[in-house]
Specification:
The structure holds two protein chains of two kinds. Chain A has nine helices and no strands. By secondary structure, chain A is an all-alpha fold. In chain A, helix 4 runs antiparallel to helix 8 (143-171). The longest helix of chain A has 30 residues, at 35-64. The termini of chain A are close together. Chain B has one domain (14-205). A two-stranded antiparallel ribbon of chain B has the order 1-2. Chain B starts with a helix and ends in a 7-residue tail after the last helix. The chains are: A mainly alpha, B mainly alpha. Chains A and B meet through helix 2, helix 3, helix 5, helix 7 and helix 9 of A and helix 2, helix 4, helix 7 and helix 10 of B.
Chain lengths: 205, 208
């Protein structure tokens, strides 16, 4: 239980996908213009993270890793398929994204229209593949911890994009030097938010 | 080798006024994450350029045979295969840099430049133009990476590619490396400054 909690808190605050690793930056910058859309995208990303991470974890441990296929018989003990991991992970993620896209199109057409091209592009959201690759690197104990890690990363990303959208909504009325308008000021604000999040580093539970 | 005007435009455009990172907002994740030093920035720039150029060519050759509904998955598979090759090559010949880049080599797959260029260009143009477009965009991305990496390493650690650049005398006079430059948030601010400088020179790019 304690391990789950600490994994969660670390994933949300300390190793925040966006501020610590800059993952998922593209959609973060493009979709953070109003809070509602940002919230929708954040939830979609969190959902896909929670679904794909455990699946990828299973695949990693029972198919891809060196010796992972030993459950098939002793002859498979030396098979090492880890060079396939990128392909397999991205295939899982892309198919889940397709699924979520169909669900959103059916049940929330307004959100579907406002997300536009960025919905299918969740498949190439670095935060999601990034979480899978970090999972591979960190070698978690079991699928439960991995799921919590996915949830935490997703919520961390959601917090970041919703916060950003709220700031940008207010920003429309402010007086910014012309060349900095739009993209430039967004970068600076993200940097400042990142500095804020750095205070959490070293946090332990 | 003579290039027609249109092809020249395709190749040169992305270097400045249609730059993938600071204008099209593509590929920002990796541009920020690997640039705390110059060397990984250069390796990353070369890898991405190679992947974009070849992925563009392959998709452009296949463009008439891919059904529109499943094109994203087809693109991902092509890109993932190329990235796997790049990552194996890096592991074999540049192991240290590969360690520093860690997950970001794999993340070239999800680099938005790839998807963006494949969708916007390779699906509608021939292989040669697509190759030039990929090369141009890869270089445009590379320039930004190298500039960020240069300033962050110079100001953050006072060295470039492992050699000390700032003379010892400066340190004796009280110069101190700016440790903040190495931390993640400063990368964003460096990009913002690049955008500021770039747009001050190109008034038509400013947003309202």
């Amino acid at each position: 239980m304690e391990e789950l909690l600490s994994t969660f808190v670390r994933a949300v605050f300390v190793d925040n996908m966006l501020f610590a690793y800059y993952l998922g930056m593209c959609s973060f910058l493009a979709v953070s213009k109003n809070v509602k859309t940002a919230l929708g995208l954040g939830i979609a990303v969190t959902f896909i993270l929670v679904c794909t991470l455990p699946i990828n974890y299973m695949l990693e441990n029972y198919v891809l890793k060196e010796g992972a296929l030993s459950w098939l018989g002793t002859g498979y003990q030396e098979v090492n398929l880890s060079f396939l991991s990128l392909l397999i992970f991205i295939a899982v993620i892309a198919s889940f994204t397709q699924l979520v896209e169909m669900v959103i199109e059916r049940f929330a057409p307004a959100l579907y229209a406002s997300l536009g091209i960025f919905l299918p592009l969740i498949a190439v959201n670095c935060a999601i593949l990034g979480a899978s690759l970090f999972m591979q690197q960190k070698a978690f104990d079991n699928a439960g911890v991995v799921t919590v890690y996915g949830l935490g990363s997703g919520i961390g990303w959601l917090l970041a994009i919703v916060g950003m959208a709220a700031i940008r909504e207010k920003l429309t009325y402010s007086n910014i030097p012309k060349p900095l308008k739009g993209l430039g000021i967004t970068f600076i604000i993200t940097g400042l938010m990142g500095m804020g999040f750095m205070c959490f580093s070293g946090l332990k539970i | 080798m003579g290039l027609s005007n249109k092809n020249k435009e395709i190749l040169i455009g992305p270097l400045s006024k249609n730059n993938p990172v600071i204008i099209q907002m593509l590929g920002i994740c990796s541009a920020l994450a690997v640039t705390s030093k110059l060397e990984p920035s250069i390796v990353m720039a070369v890898s991405v350029t190679a992947v974009v150029a070849f992925a563009n060519v392959i998709i452009s050759l296949l463009r008439n045979t891919i059904p529109a509904r499943i094109r994203i998955i087809v693109q991902l598979v092509v890109v993932a295969a190329l990235v796997t090759i790049v990552s194996e090559v890096l592991k074999a010949f540049a192991f240290d840099v590969n360690k520093q880049l860690s997950v970001f080599v794999g993340l070239i797959i999800t680099n938005c430049i790839l998807m963006g260029r494949l969708e916007a260009f390779a699906l509608g143009n021939g292989p040669w133009e697509s190759f030039l477009d990929g090369l141009g965009n890869g270089l445009g991305y590379g320039i930004i990476l190298v500039v960020i990496g240069f300033f962050r390493e110079l100001l953050g650690s006072g060295i470039l590619l492992g050699f000390q650049v700032i003379p010892d005398v400066f340190y004796q006079w009280g110069y101190v490396n700016n440790g903040l430059m190495i931390l993640p948030p400063m990368a964003l601010i460096v990009v913002a400054v690049i955008i500021w400088v770039h747009r001050s020179g190109n008034k038509n790019l400013q947003e309202n």
